[in-house]
């Protein structure tokens, strides 16, 4: 095995992370003040800049190669991005998204006009992150194109024809990917919860009730993602995080990856997948047998971001070893199973526990891929 393969010069890295971090008290206070009209948008941004600089330093300090802004400027992992696309509007709903035991704040999105990409506030957010990454890789996270269809309502006045909608969606994302590249982004992650729903019989029933066909949805989503990433520059790495729902330490979907493994690993042309493997709900590693591309990275989310208690190192190493029966160890990486705060409320652990988790990932990776 070459020295280069051990070092992993390209993302995803041996020790990586999904992206979102617990919002600090200072961020929460400033956002509240901004909402109450007590401070200006500029003043809020100033606080965000300072806090993001602090957490980027912290990520470097604990040994991560990829740094994110923790999604500190967002309220949601997906809506903030999607509602700034041309043709999409955010609105408040009567109920939130139902998780096991909990419900999110009420907000959603709708497609009211033809989709397009024409600049985006998150380009500036990325540029700021990139300017302080110095020597580290600035990682940008955005929702996968699937999420606009999966979470949004498409008004008939905007699109009568499903094919036209998916075509425009792919083109919109293609422009977005190029715009982030032009802003300096070389590591982009698409976050996607729809695949986990397609692994869950209970969720598939609910999808049918909404008029969606789970049997064809995976094909449609894969085709759209592939069109979106098709012409990405050679030096840009795009990964996808397959999420099972993450809100205040609860979840939505259960079920192993078997139902979608073939289409994902053989049919979605990204450079790596972040897979949640922190509980029995994710099933075993057998679906990884569909990983037939030697250039595809699989990031095992074996460390939970939902609770503060640290996992047993030997147990995690055993599980990496188990996964390596299906995928070459050289293609495997390690990360927490999800972000720490998919919404601004965050999971139920402390900031110190969050950093300890990330340090745990770095230490285990250093021992496994030494």
UniProtKB/TrEMBL annotation:
One of its GO terms (molecular function) is zinc ion binding. Gene3D superfamilies: 3.20.20.210. InterPro entries: Met_Synth_C/arc, UROD/MetE-like_sf. Coiled coil: none annotated. GO terms for biological process: methionine biosynthetic process; methylation. Transmembrane segments: none annotated. Pfam families: Meth_synt_2 (PF01717). This is 5-methyltetrahydropteroyltriglutamate--homocysteine methyltransferase.
């Amino acid at each position: 095995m070459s020295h280069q393969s051990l070092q992993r010069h390209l993302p995803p890295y041996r020790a990586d992370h999904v992206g979102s971090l617990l919002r600090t008290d200072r961020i929460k206070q400033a956002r509240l003040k901004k909402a109450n009209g007590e401070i200006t948008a500029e003043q809020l941004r100033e606080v965000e800049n300072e806090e993001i600089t602090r957490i980027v330093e912290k990520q470097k300090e604990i040994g991560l190669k990829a740094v994110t802004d923790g999604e500190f400027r967002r309220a949601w992992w997906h809506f903030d991005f999607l509602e700034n696309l041309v043709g999409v509007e955010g609105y408040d709903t009567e109920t939130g998204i139902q998780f096991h035991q909990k419900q999110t704040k009420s907000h959603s999105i709708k497609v009211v006009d033809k989709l397009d990409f024409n600049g985006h506030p998150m380009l500036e957010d990325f540029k700021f992150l990139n300017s302080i990454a110095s020597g580290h890789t600035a990682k940008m996270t955005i929702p996968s194109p699937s999420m606009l269809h999966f979470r949004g309502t498409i008004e008939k006045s905007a699109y009568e024809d499903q094919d036209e909608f998916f075509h425009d969606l792919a083109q919109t994302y293609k422009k977005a990917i190029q715009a982030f590249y032009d802003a300096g982004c070389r590591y982009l992650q698409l976050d996607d919860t729809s695949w986990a729903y397609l692994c869950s019989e209970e969720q598939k029933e609910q999808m049918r009730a909404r008029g969606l066909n789970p049997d064809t949805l995976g094909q449609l989503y894969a085709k759209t993602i592939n069109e979106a990433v098709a012409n990405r520059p050679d030096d840009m790495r795009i990964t996808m995080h397959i999420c099972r729902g993450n809100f205040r330490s609860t979840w939505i979907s259960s079920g192993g990856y078997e139902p979608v493994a073939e289409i994902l690993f053989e049919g979605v042309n990204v450079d790596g997948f972040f897979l949640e493997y922190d509980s029995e709900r994710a099933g075993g590693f057998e679906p990884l047998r569909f990983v037939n591309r030697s250039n595809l990275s699989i990031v095992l989310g074996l460390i939970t971001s939902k609770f503060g208690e640290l996992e047993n190192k030997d147990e995690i190493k055993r599980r990496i070893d188990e996964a390596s029966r299906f995928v070459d160890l050289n293609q495997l990486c390690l990360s927490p199973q999800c972000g720490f705060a998919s919404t601004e409320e965050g999971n139920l652990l402390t900031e110190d526990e969050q950093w300890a988790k990330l340090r745990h990932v770095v230490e285990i990776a250093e021992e496994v891929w030494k």
